[in-house]
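thought: user wants a sequence for this fold. calling inverse folding tool.
action: design(structure=
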């Protein structure tokens, strides 16, 4: 039955099981872009730490004021801040069909904290989807986004710092999920729709 995977089957299965996905990759890999497509297909709750932090900054909250200088410098925000943000939201969505974690976890400590909070709610991560994009393409995308969205962290110096932070602190998170046999690597270069299709196929094979 699982091998047929008609759209009706996928819709049926996705309302029957809890699907918790981690969308992973370097800055500019397309996590935000692709999250939107997966949410629409599987009716998941979107938890993007980048979006939550940007909204805190825009609202000039205490947390936002703390995070702003770090984000503008291309540095990660401290673990305890982002872990607290996610914890609060998981408990708000008790009846969710599943979650898509976009840009979280970004350190092994965050990954361990996520496993702990999911276990406490009798949940677990179904899969980590890693978008693979070479560095020159990442830089080009983020510089293009700088002209379109005016994001303060898309300057050439900050982009370099963000990629360094990713390589040093975030990449080990892929090994963390590989050891749990949950890591799936997807080519993140090409048409957005083509990448969406690879992601959807990967998820359907898990159902
Ligand atoms: P995020 O908001 O997570 O941002 P991101 O890494 O820039 O991006 P993403 O991969 O989502 O890129 P997008 O789809 O937009 O983080 C921002 C900052 O917040 C971090 O640097 C950090 O300071 C802080 N932060 C967030 N989470 C944290 C955590 N857990 N711990 C600590 N700190 C945290 O794509 C980029 C561009 O490429 C777009 O313009 C898009 O249109 C384009 N694009 C996408 N797919 C494409 C394709 N296939 N071809 C061509 N262009 C494409």
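)
observation: tool returned 207 residues.
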């Amino acid at each position: 039955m699982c091998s047929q995977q008609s759209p009706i089957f996928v819709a049926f299965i996705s309302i029957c099981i809890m699907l918790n996905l981690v969308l992973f990759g370097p800055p500019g890999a397309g996590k935000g872009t692709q999250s939107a497509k997966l949410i629409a297909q599987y009716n998941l709750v979107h938890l993007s730490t980048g979006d939550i932090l940007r909204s805190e900054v825009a609202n000039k909250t205490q947390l936002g004021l703390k995070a702003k200088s770090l984000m503008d410098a291309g540095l990660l925000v401290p673990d305890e801040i982002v872990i607290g943000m996610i914890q609060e939201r998981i408990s708000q969505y008790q009846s969710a069909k599943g979650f898509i974690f976009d840009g979280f976890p970004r350190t092994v400590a965050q990954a361990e904290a996520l496993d702990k909070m999911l276990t406490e709610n009798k949940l677990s991560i179904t899969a980590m989807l890693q978008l693979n994009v070479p560095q020159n393409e990442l830089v080009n995308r983020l510089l293009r986004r700088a002209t379109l969205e005016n994001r303060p962290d898309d300057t050439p110096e900050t982009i370099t710092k963000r990629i360094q932070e990713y390589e040093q602190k975030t990449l080990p998170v892929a090994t963390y999920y590989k050891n749990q046999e949950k890591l799936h690597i997807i080519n993140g270069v090409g048409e957005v729709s083509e990448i969406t299709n690879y992601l959807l196929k990967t998820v359907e094979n898990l159902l």
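thought: summarizing for user.
answer: Here is the designed sequence. The first strand starts at residue 19 and ends at 24.
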